[in-house]
Amino acid sequence: MLTPVATYEALTTQVDWRFPARLNMAAQTCDDWATAEPERVAIVEITPAARREVTYGALRHRADTLARLLLARGAGAGDRIGVLRSQDAWCAAAHIAIWKIGAISVPLFKLFQRDALAVRIGDAAAGLVITDREGMAIMGDLATPLVADDVAVTDEPFETVKFETAKFETVETGPETPAVLIYTSGTTGAPKGALHGHRMLAGHLPGVEMSHEFLGQPGDCLWTPADWAWIGGLFDVAMPALALGVPVVAARMEKFDAQTCQSIIAQGAVKNVFFPPTALRMLKASGTTISGLRTVASGGESLGAEILDWGRAALGVSINEFYGQTECNMVAASCGALFEAEAGCIGKPAPGFDIAVLDAEGAPTTDEGDVAVKRGAGSMMLGYWNRPDETAAKYKGDWMLTGDRGIWQGDYLRFVGREDDVISSAGYRIGPSEIEDCLLRHPSVATAGVVGKPDALRGEIVKAYVVVKKGVKADAALAKALQSHVKTHLANYSYPREISFLDALPMTVTGKVIRKELKARAMTETETDI
After folding, report:
1. What is the CATH number of the domain that holds 186?
2. Which of 36, 134, 218, 375 is the most exposed place for a label (fewest CB within 10 A)?
3. Taking the model in full, what pTM does it have?
4. The domain containing residue 192 runs over which residues?
5. Which of the four pLDDT bands, split at 50, 70 and 90, describes residue 153?
6. Looking at residue 426, what is its pLDDT?
7. 176: helix, coil or strand?
8. A GO BP term, please (predicted)?
9. pLDDT score of 488
10. How far apart (Å, rounded) are the C-alpha atoms in residues 117 and 432?
């Protein structure tokens, strides 16, 4: 754990990436605590019908029982095994059991349609998937399910399940031993599997602790509405909490809504939350306030001043942004306990991470350039699964390219946009994030997505797609008002020359606007709203 300090400079000296020869995430997240404090609460399950606490000792029994079932099914070290479950103790136990036998867990999402599951299961060659009855119906015959008649994966209440209590001996693994194959969202092409070793969790901890202002304080309890099938739910919340001895709330939301969110926070005595940006916008649009939180973190895209200001008023805390991606996560963060957040910035490098902004030749620059992370970082992937050429293309010398554009603002990293999202208009390079943030400040706007649209004169023009709040009339007059709003608050050259109104924006399952789809739409448009 990070030691609480008074300055960011003191924080940066606390981490290096020297790992022990033996390292297994099953021990970090379960076995070590189960040995030391078996009655310590690990997971708080909240369903519409009940609230249930699962201790580390009980979690280990569950994982050990599953590990034996996996071996009985012929699974072994190096095999890829899918996990198709929602937030619950069985989901955590499934990953832990897979790591115990030296296999590789492959998180899968229940909202995927069959084709999306088929791509991931097929690419990973995952012949076995730990799931439940709901997941089995979704998956069909794509892989062999471990479900239904097996006592360790029933849908029965935890207290009624009988476990083998003999301790399972976890296989020996090291920091570089493959442990997790987690797929990118595929917003810029076919999804790729990022393969991570057992050092992945240790690599996440500094950024998680930093963004939650030294997570692990008395009374801390962590939750996120993000599904545990995603790196943001699994390795920014669930596994770090278990490793730090912080209770993690498991509560599946069929659909995000403010009232259910408030109820979960109250029932779980939640003090720390990771809210994806879309969740924050929905809370803001609903007029929701939440009290009693100690920290709120958010990541996935830049929030901007409007959401940050709202967070202080409605949530009672400063929202700490963090930054990373599936290939190398939690590399930068804000920490309200140490420094004020800067609107449009994604914080400062997390301890242990060396971040640079590179110019076209690959040299660090103080100008706008490519955001990159130096090799050797704890949370950096081993490589893309079966894609050596794409793995090689991800690096430039000693630096892993994130695909994002950024610029230093002092020692803060300012996010400009995805490399393929930055708009080049009449010689200006325009980041879409600040325009989206500016549009969100208008009282009529619920959410917005901004892309570049080809233009014969300017190369590209700024095109905005806007979803208005309930009861607002979306017409040419509003479009002109929004253009004036951006001109007034940003710059004349960056205002959206075209605005279209939509009922909803295309989103990834993690809540990011899919600008690729908006850009494709803009490419085919012949007429616009104004």
Report:
1. 3.40.50.12780
2. 218
3. 0.83
4. 24-40+56-197
5. very low
6. 67
7. coil
8. fatty acid biosynthetic process
9. 86
10. 31
